Amino acid sequence: MIDDVQPVSQPSTVGESAYQKIRSDIVFGRLPPGRKLKLDRLKADYGASVSTLREILNRLHSERLVVAEGQKGFEVAPVSIANLREIAALRQLLECRALEQSFRAGDMEWEGRVVAAHHRLARMEERMAQGDWTHTEEWKRYDWQFHQALISACGSKMLIDNHAAVFDKYLRYQMIALSYRGDIAANEHALLLECALERDAARASEVLTRHVAGGVEHALATGTIS
Protein backbone atom coordinates (compact mmCIF):
# COMPACT_ATOMS: atom_id res chain seq x y z
CA MET A 1 0.00 0.00 0.00
CA ILE A 2 2.89 2.34 -0.65
CA ASP A 3 0.85 5.19 -2.05
CA ASP A 4 3.59 6.76 -4.11
CA VAL A 5 4.61 3.51 -5.83
CA GLN A 6 1.87 3.26 -8.42
CA PRO A 7 -0.47 6.21 -7.89
CA VAL A 8 -3.81 5.76 -9.60
CA SER A 9 -4.65 9.45 -9.30
CA GLN A 10 -3.38 12.57 -7.59
CA PRO A 11 -4.49 13.08 -3.96
CA SER A 12 -7.73 15.07 -3.97
CA THR A 13 -7.11 17.02 -0.77
CA VAL A 14 -4.27 18.54 1.22
CA GLY A 15 -5.13 16.13 4.02
CA GLU A 16 -4.84 13.06 1.82
CA SER A 17 -1.55 14.31 0.39
CA ALA A 18 -0.15 14.91 3.89
CA TYR A 19 -1.35 11.47 5.01
CA GLN A 20 0.41 9.77 2.13
CA LYS A 21 3.65 11.69 2.74
CA ILE A 22 3.72 11.03 6.48
CA ARG A 23 2.86 7.37 5.96
CA SER A 24 5.59 6.99 3.35
CA ASP A 25 8.11 8.70 5.63
CA ILE A 26 7.28 6.21 8.40
CA VAL A 27 7.43 3.16 6.13
CA PHE A 28 10.72 4.21 4.54
CA GLY A 29 12.28 5.11 7.89
CA ARG A 30 12.61 8.84 7.34
CA LEU A 31 10.51 9.14 10.50
CA PRO A 32 12.26 6.54 12.68
CA PRO A 33 10.67 4.41 15.43
CA GLY A 34 10.02 6.40 18.59
CA ARG A 35 10.12 9.81 16.87
CA LYS A 36 7.83 12.29 18.63
CA LEU A 37 5.28 13.65 16.20
CA LYS A 38 4.86 17.25 17.28
CA LEU A 39 1.96 18.95 15.56
CA ASP A 40 3.73 22.29 15.04
CA ARG A 41 6.67 20.59 13.35
CA LEU A 42 4.39 18.41 11.24
CA LYS A 43 2.41 21.47 10.20
CA ALA A 44 5.58 23.12 8.92
CA ASP A 45 6.88 19.96 7.22
CA TYR A 46 3.68 18.73 5.58
CA GLY A 47 1.59 21.86 5.09
CA ALA A 48 -1.57 20.63 6.81
CA SER A 49 -3.59 22.19 9.60
CA VAL A 50 -3.36 20.97 13.19
CA SER A 51 -6.89 19.54 13.09
CA THR A 52 -6.11 17.68 9.84
CA LEU A 53 -2.88 16.35 11.29
CA ARG A 54 -4.73 15.01 14.32
CA GLU A 55 -7.06 13.12 12.00
CA ILE A 56 -4.06 11.78 10.06
CA LEU A 57 -2.29 10.61 13.21
CA ASN A 58 -5.43 8.88 14.45
CA ARG A 59 -5.70 7.18 11.06
CA LEU A 60 -2.08 6.03 11.26
CA HIS A 61 -2.70 4.92 14.84
CA SER A 62 -5.47 2.63 13.57
CA GLU A 63 -2.92 1.17 11.12
CA ARG A 64 -0.47 0.65 14.02
CA LEU A 65 2.19 2.81 12.40
CA VAL A 66 1.78 5.45 15.12
CA VAL A 67 1.14 5.06 18.85
CA ALA A 68 -0.69 7.48 21.13
CA GLU A 69 0.95 8.64 24.36
CA GLY A 70 -2.19 9.53 26.24
CA GLN A 71 -2.33 13.31 26.62
CA LYS A 72 1.27 13.69 25.41
CA GLY A 73 0.53 13.22 21.72
CA PHE A 74 1.80 10.68 19.21
CA GLU A 75 5.04 8.99 18.22
CA VAL A 76 6.14 6.63 15.47
CA ALA A 77 5.44 3.03 16.44
CA PRO A 78 8.40 1.18 17.97
CA VAL A 79 9.89 -1.99 16.50
CA SER A 80 10.65 -5.33 18.08
CA ILE A 81 11.84 -8.77 17.11
CA ALA A 82 8.53 -10.33 18.15
CA ASN A 83 6.56 -7.84 16.06
CA LEU A 84 8.75 -8.44 13.01
CA ARG A 85 8.24 -12.19 13.24
CA GLU A 86 4.48 -11.74 13.63
CA ILE A 87 4.29 -9.42 10.61
CA ALA A 88 6.41 -11.79 8.52
CA ALA A 89 4.18 -14.76 9.40
CA LEU A 90 1.07 -12.80 8.44
CA ARG A 91 2.64 -11.63 5.19
CA GLN A 92 3.57 -15.20 4.30
CA LEU A 93 0.07 -16.45 5.05
CA LEU A 94 -1.67 -13.77 2.97
CA GLU A 95 0.78 -13.83 0.08
CA CYS A 96 0.81 -17.61 -0.29
CA ARG A 97 -2.98 -17.64 -0.42
CA ALA A 98 -3.04 -14.80 -2.95
CA LEU A 99 -0.36 -16.45 -5.08
CA GLU A 100 -2.40 -19.62 -5.39
CA GLN A 101 -5.49 -17.70 -6.55
CA SER A 102 -3.53 -15.38 -8.82
CA PHE A 103 -1.64 -18.20 -10.56
CA ARG A 104 -4.93 -19.95 -11.25
CA ALA A 105 -6.67 -16.88 -12.69
CA GLY A 106 -3.77 -14.97 -14.28
CA ASP A 107 -3.92 -14.24 -18.00
CA MET A 108 -1.41 -12.91 -20.55
CA GLU A 109 -1.81 -9.34 -19.31
CA TRP A 110 -1.03 -10.52 -15.79
CA GLU A 111 2.06 -12.33 -17.05
CA GLY A 112 3.18 -9.10 -18.72
CA ARG A 113 2.83 -7.16 -15.47
CA VAL A 114 4.81 -9.78 -13.57
CA VAL A 115 7.61 -9.93 -16.14
CA ALA A 116 7.87 -6.13 -16.36
CA ALA A 117 7.91 -5.73 -12.58
CA HIS A 118 10.60 -8.39 -12.21
CA HIS A 119 12.72 -6.76 -14.91
CA ARG A 120 12.76 -3.44 -13.02
CA LEU A 121 13.56 -5.16 -9.74
CA ALA A 122 16.30 -7.33 -11.23
CA ARG A 123 18.02 -4.32 -12.82
CA MET A 124 18.00 -2.50 -9.48
CA GLU A 125 19.32 -5.58 -7.69
CA GLU A 126 22.18 -5.72 -10.20
CA ARG A 127 23.09 -2.12 -9.38
CA MET A 128 23.04 -2.82 -5.66
CA ALA A 129 25.16 -5.94 -6.13
CA GLN A 130 27.75 -3.70 -7.78
CA GLY A 131 27.84 -1.47 -4.70
CA ASP A 132 25.40 1.25 -5.73
CA TRP A 133 23.26 1.77 -2.62
CA THR A 134 22.06 5.26 -3.53
CA HIS A 135 18.56 4.13 -4.52
CA THR A 136 17.41 1.94 -1.61
CA GLU A 137 13.91 3.41 -1.57
CA GLU A 138 13.53 2.81 -5.29
CA TRP A 139 14.73 -0.77 -4.78
CA LYS A 140 12.03 -1.40 -2.20
CA ARG A 141 9.39 0.18 -4.40
CA TYR A 142 10.34 -2.22 -7.19
CA ASP A 143 10.31 -5.08 -4.69
CA TRP A 144 6.78 -4.09 -3.64
CA GLN A 145 5.66 -3.77 -7.27
CA PHE A 146 6.93 -7.26 -8.12
CA HIS A 147 5.22 -8.99 -5.21
CA GLN A 148 2.06 -6.99 -5.83
CA ALA A 149 2.10 -7.97 -9.50
CA LEU A 150 2.40 -11.65 -8.56
CA ILE A 151 -0.85 -11.54 -6.57
CA SER A 152 -2.69 -8.94 -8.68
CA ALA A 153 -4.88 -11.53 -10.43
CA CYS A 154 -6.16 -13.14 -7.23
CA GLY A 155 -9.57 -11.52 -7.64
CA SER A 156 -9.92 -10.30 -4.05
CA LYS A 157 -9.52 -6.60 -3.29
CA MET A 158 -9.71 -7.32 0.43
CA LEU A 159 -6.86 -9.81 0.20
CA ILE A 160 -4.74 -7.41 -1.88
CA ASP A 161 -5.41 -4.49 0.49
CA ASN A 162 -4.60 -6.52 3.60
CA HIS A 163 -1.46 -7.89 2.01
CA ALA A 164 -0.35 -4.36 1.05
CA ALA A 165 -0.83 -3.08 4.60
CA VAL A 166 1.19 -5.97 6.06
CA PHE A 167 3.86 -5.70 3.37
CA ASP A 168 4.41 -2.03 4.27
CA LYS A 169 5.03 -2.95 7.90
CA TYR A 170 7.46 -5.67 6.81
CA LEU A 171 9.15 -3.21 4.45
CA ARG A 172 9.61 -0.71 7.31
CA TYR A 173 11.72 -3.24 9.17
CA GLN A 174 13.85 -3.84 6.09
CA MET A 175 14.42 -0.11 5.65
CA ILE A 176 15.31 0.34 9.31
CA ALA A 177 17.79 -2.54 9.11
CA LEU A 178 18.93 -1.66 5.55
CA SER A 179 18.59 -5.38 4.93
CA TYR A 180 19.63 -6.53 1.46
CA ARG A 181 20.56 -10.19 0.94
CA GLY A 182 22.20 -9.80 -2.46
CA ASP A 183 22.22 -12.75 -4.85
CA ILE A 184 20.16 -14.92 -2.51
CA ALA A 185 17.14 -12.60 -2.66
CA ALA A 186 17.65 -11.92 -6.38
CA ASN A 187 17.68 -15.66 -7.13
CA GLU A 188 14.51 -16.16 -5.08
CA HIS A 189 12.80 -13.41 -7.06
CA ALA A 190 13.85 -15.11 -10.30
CA LEU A 191 12.44 -18.40 -9.02
CA LEU A 192 9.13 -16.72 -8.16
CA LEU A 193 8.94 -15.37 -11.71
CA GLU A 194 9.62 -18.84 -13.08
CA CYS A 195 6.93 -20.32 -10.85
CA ALA A 196 4.45 -17.68 -11.99
CA LEU A 197 5.02 -18.37 -15.67
CA GLU A 198 4.72 -22.10 -15.04
CA ARG A 199 1.71 -21.61 -12.73
CA ASP A 200 3.47 -23.66 -10.05
CA ALA A 201 1.80 -22.32 -6.90
CA ALA A 202 3.10 -25.05 -4.60
CA ARG A 203 6.72 -24.37 -5.49
CA ALA A 204 6.13 -20.61 -5.33
CA SER A 205 4.83 -20.95 -1.77
CA GLU A 206 7.97 -22.86 -0.80
CA VAL A 207 10.19 -20.18 -2.34
CA LEU A 208 8.21 -17.37 -0.74
CA THR A 209 8.35 -19.00 2.68
CA ARG A 210 12.13 -19.24 2.37
CA HIS A 211 12.28 -15.70 1.01
CA VAL A 212 10.36 -14.12 3.88
CA ALA A 213 12.11 -16.16 6.59
CA GLY A 214 15.50 -15.28 5.12
CA GLY A 215 14.59 -11.61 5.09
CA VAL A 216 13.66 -11.71 8.76
CA GLU A 217 16.83 -13.44 9.85
CA HIS A 218 19.00 -11.13 7.76
CA ALA A 219 17.29 -8.04 9.19
CA LEU A 220 17.82 -9.34 12.72
CA ALA A 221 21.47 -10.12 11.99
CA THR A 222 22.15 -6.40 11.45
CA GLY A 223 21.57 -5.82 15.16
CA THR A 224 19.49 -2.69 14.56
CA ILE A 225 16.22 -4.22 15.81
CA SER A 226 15.84 -5.01 19.49
Question: Can you give keywords for this protein?
Answer:
226 residues; mainly alpha; Arc Repressor Mutant, subunit A; Four Helix Bundle (Hemerythrin (Met), subunit A); 2 domains; three-stranded antiparallel beta sheet
What count of domains describes the coordinates? Answer: 2
Spatial arrangement of strands, main beta sheet: 1-3-2
- What does the average pLDDT come to? 91
- Poorly predicted residue ranges: 3-11
Question: Biggest sheet, in brief?
Answer: 3 strands, antiparallel
Shape: globular
Can you tell me the CATH topology of the largest domain? Four Helix Bundle (Hemerythrin (Met), subunit A)
Percent of sequence in beta strands: under 5%
| Count of alpha/pi helices | 9
Explain this structure to me?
This protein is mainly α. It has nine helices and three strands; from the N terminus they run H-E-H-H-E-E-H-H-H-H-H-H. It has helices at residues 14-27, 39-46, 50-62, 81-105, 108-129, 136-151, 157-177, 183-198, 201-221; strands at residues 36-37, 66-68, 74-76. The protein is globular.
